[in-house]
Amino acid sequence: MITMQLSLKFKILIIAFFLIIFQSCSKTDPVTGENKRLEPSVEARTEAARAKDGGIFGNIISGGKTNTFDFATSNVLWRATLKTLDFIPLINADYAGGIIIYDWYSETNSGEQIKISIKFLSNEIRSDSLQITAHKKNCIKDEKCSTIKLGNNFAQEIRDNIITEARRIKIEEVKKEKNK
Asked: Is pTM, for the whole model, over 0.90?
């Protein structure tokens, strides 16, 4: 009797475990919260990927040229970065290389300045998509300057602001698409 109760509890525990695992496999867009359904048919997914990307060898028929272009204006993370740090003078923005370098910046003439470089590792709106390097320069008069790399807390604060702005932009874009 006791072994039967333990066996029943064990079966219920196993079923609950698998239900939790299968539930966590659902695809939900982290930005909009919408559920994304995967096509169960392998053939249909393959056909969609081939039509989108041109298959293994690319789109040979049209010479590899497509009608879609990936400009910086279509990258939400790129636009959010430029918008978030628009008050800092820009030195270089290389979209193809995935890097933005800002010039030395100071709100006052206190002798302290910061310089920020942002490297894009991915186009996804995630915190690990950005590598932020920040330096601080302290100058005593014009002759003696020392430069140090700022810690991760400063970079994390900038990253959080950029990600928040990117999510806001993405949500606005999704709402505009739904209203069309």
From this structure: no
